[in-house]
Each structure stands twice: as C-alpha cells, then as structure tokens.
Amino acid sequence: MNNIMLPGVELPVDNNTHYSIIAEKIYKKIGKKEILKGVDLKIRYGEIHVIAGHNGAGKTTLFRILAGLLRYDSGKLSVLGFDPSKNQYEISKYLGYVPEDSSPYERLTGFENLRVFALIYSDGDEKTAEKFIKRGAEISELTHEDLLRKAGEYSNGMKKRLLIARAIMHDPKLVLLDEPTNGLDVFSAYKIRKLIRSMSSTGTTFVIATHNMSEAEMLADSITFIAYGTILYSGSVRSAIEEFNSVNLEEAFIKAVGEKYEV
C-alpha cells in the first residue's frame, strides 16, 4: 500500500492513487432482498461525483457502506485507502456524511449543534473545537442571531445548511451527501449547490446521491447511474448524454434503465 499526501494529512491508498473510492463487485442483501448487485465504482480525488438513481435504487445503502455504517456481503472496497467495514474510526476522521433523513438536535441552538460535533472531531480539544465551530458557522452562512436560536425553529433550508456545515467544518477529504436539496425551495437549494462547488474547488471530494437529474447535470464532474442495485453507466455527463443519444441527463437515465429493464 502506498501513501498519498492531501492538505494537512497523509492517507494510505491502494495502488491507484487517483481515486478516493474504489469499489469492486460489492454485493449487499438485507433480509432476503438483494439491494446491491455487484457494484463497481471509481471516484477521483477532488471531484463532484453524483450517484443518480430512482427511489429504491440502492443509493442510501451504498452510502451507508461507504461510511462504514453497514457491512457489505462480498467484494472489495477502499475508501481513502481504508476498508470501511474494518476501519470506520479511521475513516471518520476524514469523512463528512449527511444522510437524507438526518436532522440537527432541535432542542439545541445552532452553536450547540456545532459544538457537539466539534468536540468529537477534535477528540475533546477545546482550542481545536473552537476553530471548527467558527469555520462551521461561516460555512452555514447563518447569522449569529440564528445560531443562538434552537435548531427546531429553523426552516428546512437552514437545517440543511447547518447539517452540511456540521459535517464539513473539520475539513474532511471526502463528503457524502444523500439527497442534499430534497424538499428545499429554489433559494435554499441554490445556496447548497453553491457551497458544494466552493468546497470542491479546494480539493474536497463530494459524492452526492440524488434522483434529481437536473441537479445532477448542474453539479456533476462525473456521474454514475444506478437502478435496482446495478450500475448502468459511469463517466462524464456529456458522455452519458451522447452514449444514450439524449437531449439531457434525465432522458439518458431513462434510456439507460429502459435498455436494461424494459421500463
């Protein structure tokens, strides 16, 4: 195993040092249902990679596996050079993750929400935690007055911005966002996308799960189509549109699924 240098940290990686995630033939069954069926995936460092698929395609299960919260049944997986099923603690130092159904602690203020996670990220070091809190407040773009309010009083957009700030204030090298703008109004969604682009420009890798093909087309440096637990395509947005002879990404996805499943 070689090493790769990223800003402020040295991580072990597999032979191909260009990739933050390398998945080979990942299978996962929950109960009797096969959720992931031999997933192959490669995601480069520093890119915005969108995993696009319908509801129930397997996106959330895949994210939980990448974050080390769920074990895969078979295959090989490297996330930042670690196998997340064996090294969840090591990965957590360099990972930011916002699940689709996550919510801030609504009885705590915005600042208190940031502080809880800042202390975790800093291993209890108060000085480092204060730096993380300050950075999280800046990332969230919430006012000082808003951050003094309880998070339960926030709009959906404000809650989402707080969650993303909470997940990335420690400068992770990889960020997993599951449906980050789902249910948000156009202004809140725009702010989230702007934040993702800004963070990506500094070298952070973003992996975003979404069923919103228009958003995927706006954000993605590269894209993966997933349907019924199977990868149908992985590459650039432009190549996907050309390969499936489509006018946009939504049509390309529909054609890709139709070729495989006759929907």
What secondary-structure arrangement, pairings included, does this model have?
Elements: E1 2-6, E2 9-13, E3 19-30, E4 33-44, E5 48-52, H1 59-66, E6 74-79, H2 88-92, E7 95-98, H3 110-121, H4 126-140, H5 144-147, H6 156-168, E8 174-178, H7 186-200, E9 205-210, H8 213-219, E10 222-227, E11 230-235, H9 237-243, H10 249-261
Parallel strand pairs: 5-9, 5-10, 7-8, 8-9
Antiparallel strand pairs: 1-2, 3-4, 3-6, 10-11
Helix pairs in contact: 3-4, 3-6, 4-6, 6-7, 9-10
Question: Could you please describe the fold and organization of this structure?
Answer:
The chain is of the alpha/beta class and 263 residues long. Helix 7 (186-200) links the parallel strand 8 and strand 9. The protein is 38% helix and 27% strand. The longest helix is centred in the middle third of the chain and has 15 residues, at 126-140. Helix 3 crosses helix 4 and helix 9 crosses helix 10. The protein starts with a strand and ends with a helix.
Which features would summarize this protein structure in a list?
263 residues; alpha/beta; Rossmann fold; three-stranded antiparallel β-sheet; 10 helices; 38% helix; 27% strand; disordered N terminus
Fourth-tier CATH superfamily name: P-loop containing nucleotide triphosphate hydrolases
Task: Describe the main β-sheet briefly.
Answer: 6 strands, mixed
Q: What is the straight-line distance between the termini?
A: 43 Å
Query: What form results from the Cα inertia axes?
Result: globular
Which class in CATH terms? Alpha Beta
Q: Please give the domain count.
A: 1
Question: Beta-strand level of the residues, as a percent range?
Answer: 25-35%
| Elements, N to C (H/E) | EEEEEHEHEHHHHEHEHEEHH
Mean pLDDT: 90
Radius of gyration (CA) equals 18 Å
Q: Architecture, CATH level 2?
A: 3-Layer(aba) Sandwich
- CATH topology value: Rossmann fold
Alpha-beta classification: alpha/beta
Q: In total, how many beta strands?
A: 11
Strand adjacency order, main sheet: 7-8-9-5-10-11
Contiguous low-pLDDT stretches (5 residues minimum) are 1-15
Q: Which percent bin holds the helix content?
A: 25-40%
User: Total number of helical segments?
Assistant: 10
